[in-house]
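> example.struct
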């Protein structure tokens, strides 16, 4: 059981590293923010799906949504490049999500500072 969890963590870290590299070097869409940060990758137990949480530096919500839509549209190309770089039998389907936990954390931190 623990070996499987450890393996999933290693695979998710490798996917995170490779997708970050792929977005920087191979995705040349000018609408996409090149300063997107891959915060977390959650891989299903059977390696069929991967949820990728992305943080962008764009302030406007419409621009953030368009960046996520662009990444989801390019997910098959990213998956193809990922398959070339990773030696896995199954390359998971990629689904990108916007992660605003950093913004929410700052809001909570500011609220706690005002309580003091």
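> example.seq
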């Amino acid at each position: 059981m623990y070996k499987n969890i450890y393996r999933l963590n290693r695979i998710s870290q490798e996917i995170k590293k490779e997708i970050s590299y792929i977005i920087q070097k191979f995705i040349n869409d000018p609408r996409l923010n090149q300063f997107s940060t891959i915060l977390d990758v959650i891989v299903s137990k059977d390696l069929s799906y991967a949820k990728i949480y992305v943080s962008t530096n764009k302030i406007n919500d419409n621009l953030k949504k368009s960046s996520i839509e662009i990444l989801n549209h390019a997910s098959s190309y990213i998956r193809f490049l990922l398959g070339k770089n990773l030696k896995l039998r199954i390359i998971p389907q990629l689904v990108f999500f916007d992660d605003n936990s950093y913004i929410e954390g700052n809001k909570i931190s500011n609220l706690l500072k005002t309580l003091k």
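> remarks
The mean pLDDT is 86.
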